[in-house]
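Mods, move this if it's the wrong board.
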Amino acid sequence: MLAAGCELRLETRVALDDDGGGALEFTLAPDAELVDMAASAGVDPLGRLVERVEALEGWDLSTGEAEDGTLQEVTVRTGFDGPEEFGLRYEELRSALDAPEAQLLGPLSLALDPEADVVSLTGTVPFRLTEVAAADTGVPLETLGQQVDTAVQYTFVVTTPVPLVEGTATATSPVDPEDPDGAQQVVLELSPGQEQALDVAYVRPGLDLFAILLQGGIALLAVLAIGGGVLAQRRRVR
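Not the wrong board. Structure tokens:
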């Protein structure tokens, strides 16, 4: 099917927040021709993914459908409060995507160092086809990889609220070019047979001390003003 000019988009996203929590999302989007060819062959990968995710708790599911009701895109999404919950959710997604023909997700570990206040996400992201896929298609694995590479776009994206710590190996770019100190994005584009290392670390944004002092000063002035007004009123009453 892929050799016939069809296209398939795969995308995994990890969005991290100020506290080391965030959201995990995966999208599977074949083009209409691939959906039709898969249906003709009795294959329904989108429906299979939907069934697996619906059996899980805590995941949101959104779909895109053609006019005839045929699934054309599936996105699954969940949130997590910290490293432990991320580990659970990520393994659920790995299990849902597990197939003997290919591997799309590798081991990832989210950690929070409370002393340094550093959040880190490390591991590997693979795009690996197996001999099972080669046997199913009757094409040598190397040739199959070349065919899949022209038809499948697979990206793995990590977003952090602030720039990475200095010396982090993974390259990043600002989400907003006009705000280089704001949210950052790491984008891995993978080809079949590749496995890329992921090394993301950032210091959790701290409290704005100036803002706190300013707010505290305003609050203090307000209290003094109210107190002064009350005292003045009492003097007038006397």
